[in-house]
Amino acid sequence: MSEQNPIHIFVTHAFGPHEEYARVFEYLESRDNFFYANTSDPDAAARGDLEAMQEAIRNQIKQAEAVLFPIGVYNDNPKLYDFELTVAQAFDKPVIAIKSFGDTLVVPAHVIDVAAETVEWNDREITDAIRRHGRGEDVDQWDVVDFDPD
């Protein structure tokens, strides 16, 4: 992964603004040397009929290497989000579920079944999961803790 070869991601959306959708990008932007291209477009087909919306979703997911699913958006439009998960499965795209912010919502069982991994709202966990499942990269990292023995 580099600036010339970013990881393509799709973040689930319901063709409208949502704070958890926006929060995903805040977390991704906070990581140094993490380069991504966003294939999701919440403004596409916003005024179209159901078929146009579904086709827009298919085209957006088809371009992605990984699908990010912030759980907190689910209750806004369960049918559309279930469709997005089904499309991700059909295109064999790994789904990375992100627990609801503040962990206030229960992750639906079928989402856990579809997700390659479920992560917390943590920039390192999210980007490591994208690298692991989107590109198959080994992301084992060790934290070094310095302490004064005195």
Question: What are the key terms here?
Answer:
150 residues, alpha/beta, Rossmann fold, five-stranded parallel sheet, 37% helix
What sort of overall outline do the alpha carbons produce when their principal axes are compared? globular
Number of distinct helices:
5
What is the CATH homology-level superfamily?
Answer: Hypothetical protein MTH538
> For this entry, what is the oligomeric state of its chains?
single chain
Give the class from helix and strand content and strand pairing: alpha/beta
- Average of the residue pLDDT scores: 87
The helix/strand series, from N terminus to C terminus, equals EHEHEHEHEH
How many discrete domains?
A: 1
Largest sheet: 5 strands, parallel
In the CATH scheme, the class would be Alpha Beta
Number of strands: 5
Tell me what the CATH architecture is. 3-Layer(aba) Sandwich
Give a brief rundown of this model.
With 150 residues, this protein is of the alpha/beta class.
Outline the structure in words:
The chain is of the alpha/beta class. It has one domain: Rossmann fold (3-Layer(aba) Sandwich). It contains five helices and five strands, in the order βαβαβαβαβα. The chain has helices at 19-29, 50-62, 78-90, 109-114, 123-135; strands at 7-11, 36-38, 66-70, 95-98, 117-119. Strands 2-1-3-4-5 form a five-stranded parallel β-sheet. Strand 4, helix 4 (109-114) and strand 5 form a beta-alpha-beta unit. Helix 2 (50-62) crosses helix 3. It is globular and about 65 Å long. The chain starts with 6 loop residues before the first strand and ends in a 15-residue tail after the last helix.
